[in-house]
Write a structure and sequence with these properties.
Elements (H helix, E strand, L loop, with lengths): L1 H21 L5 H13 L11 H19 L15 E5 L4 E4 L2 E4 L22 E6 L5 E6 L14 E6 L3 E5 L4 E3 L3 H4 L1 H12 L6 H35 L2 E5 L3 H4 L3 E2 L12 E2 L4 H7 L1 H14 L3 E5 L25 E3 L6 E3 H19 L16 E2 L2 E2 L6 H13 L1
Parallel strand pairs: 6-9, 9-12
Antiparallel strand pairs: 1-4, 2-3, 4-5, 6-7, 7-8, 10-11, 13-14, 15-16
Helix pairs in contact: 1-3, 2-3, 5-6, 6-9
Amino acid sequence: MGCVRLVYNKALAVRTEGWYERQERIGYGQTSSLLTQWKKLEDLDFLSEVSCVPLQQCLRHLQTAFTNFHAQRSKYPNFKKKRNGGSAEFTKSAFKWRDGKLFLAKCKEPLNIVWSRFLPQDSKPSTVTVKLDPSGRWFVSILVKDPTIKPLPKTGKQVGIDVGVTSLITTSNSEKITNPKHWNRLHKKLRRKQKALSRKTKDSNNYYKARLEVARVHAQIKDARTDFLHKLTTKLVQENDLIAVEDLAIKNMVKKRCDPAPSNGARERAPRHHKLAKSISDASWGELNRQLEYKCEWYGKELIKIDRYFPSSKRCGDCGHIVDKLPLNIREWECPKCGTNHDRDINASKNILAAGQAVRQRGLGGLPHERLPNPFGVSVCGASVRPEESKSRKATALKQKLRS
């Protein structure tokens, strides 16, 4: 694990230095050649004592990180830190699978594994990843093709899902699943451990022990959250043939916002406290959608993502009227046109389901709503589910016209 981290950091330093000093882009091929030279150095000859496969794989991962950065899908790659654990990936040529035992390259003894899940019969691993998390736990992730995964029987049910903070999800069947708020449950314990860590001398043995205690509490929160989401998403996929969700920009929702410029002419804007960022992160909406996506693909179900600008909460489910403003503190509202009283979340989930049905009938899944034809063929109680163009998009289009 230390060799993988060392090679990754040295390659990242070389690529960063090459660009900022010589305006040279260094790719995977050049870093692979540098790895051969590093092994010949006297102070780095220990790199030859481990398998070369995970060292090459970490260079490929670095190349992927730079590709995502240049495509503006992620930030600039960071250096790996020892306290964050790490991982080492072994391909077919770097491990052996014999009688249910795993032998890694240059290791005479098999790994002593406590199996949490046994591999399917007649399955051959293609990739093995050894992971170390910050709390000091070791994991082995084995990639296989599972022939036992088959499509589930059809139930004829469809559901729309609206995510939230108080209620994690609200379905179009008027069912609300309460958000367990795992971080709040262990907040006091985490605070106590962090306070003990702050009193220790940095880089001492006691500091290392206290840091592990903090990491173990974070691991408890993560494990509880993941377990709850797996049980919830599996239930949703088993009970429904079609699931409609919103395609939310979660990263933008948790960013720190700023207040408008002060009237005294000061240039800097004061940062405003984001009250929902912690709750949104703890709810883990992105992980919920990710699990729904791959489980629907596994079991032959259909997942439709509705455009994030669709006014699911503001639209009346009876007459189709859209209100101008609907603050978050208003959980129930009355339609000014037809007088129907709505629960905010239930009304939104029903509108999301109607929009998902419309997209499904027209066979236009995956297209943004601005490109969907109108009418749909399925309406939200007489009103087309095609959302009106938002003010932000109108402003963006106007700026593009002015620039051109």
